[in-house]
């Protein structure tokens, strides 16, 4: 699973109201939610994103509400990966369940600047910063989460159990 | 192994032995919850999972409290979807109309959750039931769909932070001030991936509603759960609400904690979280004349009867400042009725407050109290993220019901003793 795109860096403690404000939660459609992604940070934020770009968050990314609309909006906006210092715990579960790739890199986050070109191998967790020519290694995905990912996410995982 | 409260409760619902923090365990769920924002996604996921029925129609609660009474056609369509699903599945605990209340005030009041339960909800403030000694935590809609189908889910056994609260509460200092102070102390990621466990003399003295207020905001420190021991007070509360077979649960002596935090409340006045994070907490006297345009008293944090009583005591015989919109939302129909019977609503109305129905509306910028640019609000709610309650250029301050009442009268954030 390789991803290549431009980094869009946001700060520490980016909450789910910033990712997708509550007033837009009257739909579950990924495209509609994607069009409003980060509307709580800055009006029209999403216009800067090209499909395949990579979101870079700071500490505690995704704190706040349990709304799954947040990872859906990020995916809907065309960003398949979030690299962050750390993730808020509900968002972390939601991301994997939705098939959004999440990589935690702690203080190494300082090595990525807004606009850098990144090349990411999600399997090995290696993030190549093509702009600075430096390499960052992310913390491995916990074993059980990897198992859910391997089954294709939580929906197929539960489908298998329901069928039994 | 000596167990923390979190580990003890997980063990009660788990076949394998709970041995250490970091271990992944499968646990049976006691109650699975979703609301009108999160249930529609959960229903979609539930269908995709191929599930045909919920694991137990008495152990699923669907509470349409965020955008109800429906604010527009889209929210009405969402609620319709939830209503039809509830009917199809025979969900017993479906609430939408005159019986709906703010979910985390409603479920304990109906005796649907209690000590030792594992409650998972597609709402981050599900952690409220930790006040009753339940391992209760928020998750996303797809996790909740899985739990609705299977009656079980997985948890990473958390490390715990023990918070010992000593000293005496001052006249105008409440449970809300304790939790705001703690969040200010450890930060919005101070309990990330971990459980908060409360102990100490102040905790023993706190009534159940105060404990729920504190547990409610565990998520604001990044916590997975905020747990109180289940003691005699818990048992009495549960028995009154009709929750059967409640048991006392205390952490084992010698349980191992990631960190211990000591707080002394003596001499500490009301606390206020300033924009735009819940950990930007200051003592009220440090603030100095911040004028407010709106005050909101309500929500799953502070919309219970004791909150309304505290605020009414301050506002009785006074008038709401003409420059302020004071919105009062009793959190459930029963609290509404009780406040009416006790004359509290009369006090608020005579003072010039707006009394609304039980709804989460303004807390999340949904409806019934949206802020315009440049406006400031003091709210008893739980979050003050940028734009949370409306315009990106508005500001939300968080405080207790007594601070809310004082702000409504003065038109600015002041210590209630200065009124």
Task: Give the strand tally of chain B.
Answer: 18
Structural class of chain A: alpha/beta
The percent of residues in helical segments of chain A reads: 25-40%
Measured distance between first and last alpha carbons of chain B: 53 Å
Mean pLDDT of chain A: 95
Indicate the multimeric state.
Answer: heterodimer
Molecular shape of chain B: globular
Q: Using only CA atoms, what is the Rg of chain A?
A: 15 Å
- The secondary-structure class of chain B comes to alpha/beta
The strands making up the biggest β-sheet of chain B line up spatially as: 4-3-2-5-6
For the biggest sheet of chain B, the summary is: 5 strands, parallel
Give a written overview of the molecule.
The complex is a heterodimer of chains A (164) and B (419). Chain A has 164 residues and is of the alpha/beta class. Helices cover 28% and strands 20% of the residues of chain A. Chain A is built from six helices and seven strands. In chain A, a hairpin with a 4-residue loop joins strand 5 (117-121) and strand 6 (126-129). The radius of gyration of chain A is 15 Å and the shape is globular. The mean pLDDT of chain A is 95. By secondary structure, chain B is an alpha/beta fold. Chain B is built from 14 helices and 18 strands. Chain B has helices at residues 5-12, 39-48, 73-89, 103-109, 141-150, 175-186, 201-205, 208-216, 232-241, 299-302, 305-315, 333-341, 344-351, 401-410, and strands spanning 24-28, 31-35, 60-63, 93-95, 118-121, 135-138, 152-156, 160-166, 195-199, 225-227, 259-264, 271-273, 281-283, 294-297, 325-328, 354-355, 376-379, 395-398. In chain B, strand 2 (31-35), helix 2 and strand 3 (60-63) form a beta-alpha-beta unit. The longest helix of chain B has 17 residues, at 73-89. The interface between A and B is large, with 46 and 52 residues.
């Amino acid at each position: 699973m390789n991803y290549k795109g431009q980094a869009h860096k946001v700060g520490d403690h980016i909450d789910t109201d910033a990712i997708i404000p509550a007033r837009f939660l009257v739909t579950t459609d990924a495209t509609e939610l994607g069009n409003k992604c980060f509307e709580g940070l800055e009006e029209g934020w999403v216009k800067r994103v090209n499909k395949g770009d990579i979101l870079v968050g700071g500490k505690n990314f995704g704190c706040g509400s349990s709304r799954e609309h947040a990872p859906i909006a990020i995916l809907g906006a065309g960003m398949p990966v979030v690299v962050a210092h750390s993730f808020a715990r509900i968002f972390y579960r939601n991301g994997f369940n939705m098939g959004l790739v999440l990589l935690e890199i702690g203080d190494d986050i300082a090595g990525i600047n807004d606009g850098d070109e990144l090349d990411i191998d999600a399997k090995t967790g290696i993030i190549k910063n093509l702009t600075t020519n430096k390499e960052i290694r992310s913390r491995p995905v916990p074993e059980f989460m990897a198992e859910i990912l391997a089954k294709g996410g939580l929906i197929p995982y539960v489908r298998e159990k329901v069928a039994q | 192994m000596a167990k923390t409260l979190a580990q003890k409760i997980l063990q009660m619902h788990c076949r394998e032995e709970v041995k250490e923090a970091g271990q992944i365990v499968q646990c049976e769920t006691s109650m699975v919850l979703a609301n009108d924002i999160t249930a529609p996604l959960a229903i979609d996921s539930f269908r995709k999972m191929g599930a045909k029925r919920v694991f137990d129609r008495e152990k699923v609660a669907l509470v349409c409290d965020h955008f109800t009474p429906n604010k527009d056609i889209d929210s009405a369509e969402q609620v319709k979807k939830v209503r039809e699903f509830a009917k199809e599945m025979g969900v017993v605990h479906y609430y939408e109309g005159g019986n709906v209340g703010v979910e985390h005030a409603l479920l304990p009041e109906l005796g649907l959750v209690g000590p030792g339960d594992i409650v998972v909800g597609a709402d981050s403030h599900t952690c409220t039931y930790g006040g009753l000694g339940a391992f209760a935590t928020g998750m996303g809609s797809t996790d909740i769909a899985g739990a609705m189908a299977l009656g079980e889910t997985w948890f990473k056994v958390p490390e715990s932070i023990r918070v010992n609260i000593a000293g005496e509460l001052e006249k105008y200092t409440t449970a809300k001030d304790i939790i705001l102070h703690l969040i200010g102390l450890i930060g919005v990621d101070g309990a990330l991936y971990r459980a908060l466990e409360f102990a100490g003399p102040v905790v023993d003295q706190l009534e159940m509603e105060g404990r729920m207020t504190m547990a409610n905001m565990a998520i604001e420190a990044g916590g997975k759960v905020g747990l109180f021991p289940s003691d005699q007070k818990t048992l009495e509360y549960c028995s009154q609400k009709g929750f059967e077979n409640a048991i006392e649960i205390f952490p084992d002596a010698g349980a191992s904690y990631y960190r211990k935090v000591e707080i002394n409340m003596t001499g500490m006045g009301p606390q206020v979280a300033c924009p735009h994070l819940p950990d930007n907490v200051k003592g009220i006297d440090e603030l100095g004349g911040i004028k407010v345009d709106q005050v909101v008293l309500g929500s799953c944090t502070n919309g219970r009867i004791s909150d309304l009583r505290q605020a009414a005591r301050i506002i009785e015989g006074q008038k709401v400042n003409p420059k302020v919109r004071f919105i009062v939302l009793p959190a459930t129909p029963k609290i509404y009725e009780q406040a009416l019977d006790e004359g509290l609503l009369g006090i608020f109305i005579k003072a010039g407050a707006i009394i609304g129905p039980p709804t989460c509306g303004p807390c999340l910028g949904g409806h019934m109290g949206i802020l315009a640019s440049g406006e400031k609000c003091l709210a008893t709610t739980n979050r003050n993220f940028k734009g949370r309650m409306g315009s990106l250029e508005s500001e939300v301050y968080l405080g207790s019901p007594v601070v809310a009442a004082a702000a409504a009268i003065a038109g600015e954030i002041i210590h209630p003793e200065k009124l």
